[in-house]
Amino acid sequence: MREQKDRRREPEAEADGMIEGRNAVMEALRAGTPIDKIFLARGETDATLGHIASTARDKGIVVVEADRRKLDGMSRTHAHQGVVAIAAVREYATVDDILNAAREKGEPPLIVVCDELSDPHNLGAVIRTAECAGAHGVIIPKRRSAGLTAVVAKTSAGAVSYVPVARVPNLTALLKELKDEGLWIFGTAADGDTNLYDADLKGPAAIVIGSEGDGMGRLVSQQCDFKVSIPMKGRLNSLNASAAAAILLYEAVRQRGL
């Protein structure tokens, strides 16, 4: 009976984009499978795991050390051998890909920058809204953020197939780069000094959505040209991150007459 249960878990793990075990992960790296993140057992000195880590880092893949108990909890096969990889559902784009997409359409860039959204459902919802609103791309940080996993793809309702998503090592540097490209940076903040309906979103714009708990980080906030507040008429003073993204994106749609 146990053997039958384990057999049922393996396809489920594959459907979730999880690759477990040293040989399976190494083969995925050799084959060029898009991988979002690799978790390695903390404190392991095994040469094979070291080779996996160095190969992954050479490819720009995020490698995270984790306690074995975390790996045990993630594992569906119960045979992870100290390594679990989370496959990405598609390859990441570059920031240039996103800017070029706007140029090709002859439109001022409209980009969503997610500052450490850790909930994959939130990221998926943002990507879905970005696609529906005609945004040219979404940018996320490499660390402390959900990536293009199967859960994100499902929540996006397939939008990950159409919206370029770039992943960068440093959001502060990224925002400076976007400014150099002529974009205005609009950060969302409850205490923002610009009312949403006073913000001019018709030109080249990057909309920054803060993390679920803490909002925008200090350094990211300092790079914003405008900090936009959404009017709150009820007893609560904040919105879900993906809802805030939707409100700003569709105000941009309204202003641009799209």
From TrEMBL:
Kindly give the InterPro entries that the UniProt entry links to this protein: Alpha/beta_knot_MTases, Ribosomal_eL30-like_sf, rRNA_MeTrfase_TrmH, SpoU_MeTrfase, SpoU_subst-bd, tRNA_m1G_MTases_N
UniProt keywords (A-Z) are: Methyltransferase, Transferase
An example Pfam family from this entry, by short name, is SpoU_methylase
Q: Report domain RNA 2-O ribose methyltransferase substrate binding positions.
A: 18-93
Question: CDD domains, per this entry?
Answer: SpoU-like_RlmB
Q: Which SUPFAM superfamilies match?
A: alpha/beta knot, L30e-like
PANTHER family linked to this entry: 23S RRNA (GUANOSINE-2'-O-)-METHYLTRANSFERASE RLMB
Q: Which family does it belong to?
A: Belongs to the class IV-like SAM-binding methyltransferase superfamily. RNA methyltransferase TrmH family.
Q: What's this protein's name? A: 23S rRNA (Guanosine(2251)-2'-O)-methyltransferase RlmB
User: What is the organism field in this record?
Assistant: Pseudoflavonifractor intestinihominis
Q: Which gene encodes it?
A: rlmB
